[in-house]
Amino acid sequence: MKANTHFAFFDEGSKKEIRRATLKAVAIPGYQVPFASREMPIARGWGTGGLQLTLSLIGQTDVLKVIDQGSDESVNAVSIKKLVQDTTGVQLTECTEEADIIQSRHRIPECSLTKEQILVLQVPIPEPLRAIEEREYMTKRMHAEDDYSGAWLMLFEQIMKFGKTATTADHPVSVHDRYVMAPSPIPRFDNPKMDHSEALILLGAGREKKIYAVPPYTSVKSLAFEDYPFTVESFEGAHCHLCGAVDVFLDELIDHEKGATIYQCNDSAYCIEQLNKQEKVEVESTYA
Amino acid sequence: MHETPILRVENLCKQYGTGCQECQDKERNSVEKNYCKSCGTVFAVRDISLDLYRGEILGIVGESGSGKSTMMQCLYFDTDITSGAAYINRPGKENENVFELSSQQKRMIRNHDYGMVYQNPVHGLKMNFSSIGNIAEKLIAAGNRNVSDMEATGKRLLTNVHIPLHRMKEEPEKFSGGMQQRVQIAKALSNNPPILFLDEVTTGLDLSVQANVLDLIKKIQRELQISMIVVSHDLAVIRMLADRTIVMLNGEIIEEGLTDQVLEDPQHAYTQQLVYSLL
Amino acid sequence: MGYVPVKGGTQAIDASIKRVKFERLKGQAILEIETILSTMRALVDQVMSESSLYSPQLAALAIKQAEGSMEEAVFLMRAHRSTLPRLYYSESVETDAMFVERRISASFKDIPGGQLLGATYDYTHRLLDFNLINEKKADNTQWLQSYAEELQEVKVEETVERYPKVVEYLRKEGLFEQYEMDNTEPEDITKQNLEFPASRSARLQVLTRGQTGALTSLAYASLRGYGEVHPTVGEVRVGSLPIYVKHPNEEDGSEDEEFYIGDIQVTEVESFVPVHVKNENNEEELEFEIGYGICYGQNETKTIAMSILDQCLEHLNDEFPTHDEEFVLLHIDSVESSGFISHLKLPHYVTFQSKLDSIRQVKKGVQVNES
């Protein structure tokens, strides 16, 4: 009764099917390609879309990095890494530059990715128009007819009510001036990283059974009116209390002793790298 | 008149049901009013042709069930037609039957060439969005991406229809029926559409409010030179607004002409009945 | 700090996995798969049905591993199912070939073949039986023996008789429409994404693997008034069906070439629902339509619920969520709903930070305007 698991969990037929959907997604930037999403050994909503992409793509020589909300050591990132490694034996890394495939939930790494790399994003709700129209039957038609006035109207209403757009993470983007796409709940801070990205970006929604993509060097514009430009989260005057970095997405922490607010790089691998660099400089200067 | 109409409708038909041999055969006479006794098919709009000229108001009058609202819905692509053609006088596209266009192209026409005011504001407005947002929706759909610009247009239109600007951020669901209707008119006008459809816009409003809305429509026509098709069961409304009038009964045109003419000297028995009841 | 420190996630997970194993082992009792199979029939049936994988053995293993948690057991089975390549589709099954164990009709007292109660809790009184606390094997053996003796006295028919379907009799009377045999290849929702409007075959597949509680609740809502289907149960039957596959390489399709691969036990329900239809002369007539339900194992409530929802979705109606196929079909899957609800336990630090920023910026903006 005991069955041997396949390389990368799936049988080859399943992998091919997922790759076919992926190719279609790459061919039609920003378009959500339906696929027969499989049940995975981790729960729906816990990154099964990203995981299926990763497993369908990964080969024996690939190096994998998995992050969750910026952290390599977040429990769910660890759990996903463990599953992939148990079924493939591939090498894992925390260093962004070393990775061939980077699976991430809700963040794009701080250091820019290269054309050798693939970024796989986990998506909870792939439909950018879902808040406006709950029916899939309708939203599909709206995409087909290039009818995005609803998405823009939401932004307009926010400006009327609050004097500015009040979107949080998952701010909708227009891909290749055609499809409006949910970038997954990455902070607005990460939206610009998608624009003309050198790396292929794949987005997978397991529960909603959709795959979509931003091919390399593709235009990705965050929806914004001419006179109310798109803005990212502000960390004005703040820096990472560990490595000193500014211009990165910061986590807000409470210093328990002083009761004050301190900040720390959300991208933990980036932070450690900065710290290592500083140490190296220090060591070198001490010996010099 | 040698002027080209801005909207030309030819042989428009709309039926509910598949029809049968009985009702296709005119001689068998199975159709009573617009209903086939044999198969239950309803012939809501039967072979309607009409022209709408620049800057005129064309009135369509008839009792409820005469097919006038259905015809309007067909023209605005709210419902599919059974057969027929419509041509809009747009540069280079004069000979395009708009019913044969893709749904995307139809949407373009709705956003750029048409404005619609429904009898029930629920159909024309997003009741839980701000009034200014409702106007912006139409502008956004037509490609505007400038908030201040849209806000200015919205304010001008709302002022025109007498909605106090301090209420522009409120949702129409909080407004009275007359106010909702005026917001709907403002929305329909937002893109300066060359063609405006008005479907029983004053039905259900108080008399004083009715007069108000009718004045507004008259003013818009005078100032903006928009062509309008006004559908109403109320001859008084038609008399006040329309230059030319079409009388519909059981899905067919039974009489048409200059409004004065139709009112002074009605030819068809049904029209005579209508006119005398008005006097 | 929470559970996402810069380092240490790996150790924390390992410790947590150990702890959950400890919870299962600490009582020092071993639950045999055999025990689950022979004493927890209902649980096994429910797990097989919701996971849409027919294997009592694996279901029992899943139940054991999941410490009896339904959602976990179904989850385990589904994940296992994903690793199995689909090699064959079975030949279609005629359910009147069922070896019936139980069969009742709520529509007719006297159905051809008669009512057969079989094994059911329906007529038991739900009183806790405290004798089971100290159940003795010897007593059970003795009970079984005397039951076997009782059965000896029952007259056995010479031949095995098939139970004809109740609906066939009504069809002969013209109360049901005669349909042409439709042999369109059904869709396979595990191979193709569900699209709307959904085909009936896709709809039935989603319903049969739906979560028992979800189906029951929605069908109940429809009966109570949030829907328009008020059925009579024409027939509930429980029994086993033989499954055949074609020879993979021989295409001629004669029945002799089919291979018997085993039996499955199913519950099948046909509900009769009166509907208004127009006849050729355009007059209103009443006719019956059939809501259909079928599930692995003995799952009667779920199967009846399925038959109600099938009929609801045959008549789409915006007024009721139970008649809205996206509402019903997209929200009843156990693995999907429990997964998305439980994902809320994952850290949302970045998204929350983004929300904080948005609220602060809006507040700032308002202050500027006021001053």
From TrEMBL, chain A:
Pfam families: PhnJ. It comes from Sporosarcina ureae. Keywords: Lyase. One of its GO terms (molecular function) is lyase activity. This is Carbon-phosphorus lyase complex subunit PhnJ. It comes from the Bacteria. The keyword Lyase applies.
Automatic annotation (TrEMBL), chain B:
The lineage of its organism: Bacteria, Bacillati, Bacillota, Bacilli, Bacillales. Gene3D superfamilies: P-loop containing nucleotide triphosphate hydrolases (3.40.50.300). The keyword Thylakoid does not apply. It holds the Pfam family ABC_tran. This is Phosphonate C-P lyase system protein PhnK. Keywords: ATP-binding, Lyase, Nucleotide-binding. One of its GO terms (molecular function) is lyase activity. Residues 7-275 form the ABC transporter domain.
Automatic annotation (TrEMBL), chain C:
GO terms for molecular function: lyase activity. InterPro entries: PhnI (IPR008773). It comes from the Bacteria. Keywords: Lyase. This is Carbon-phosphorus lyase. It comes from Sporosarcina ureae.
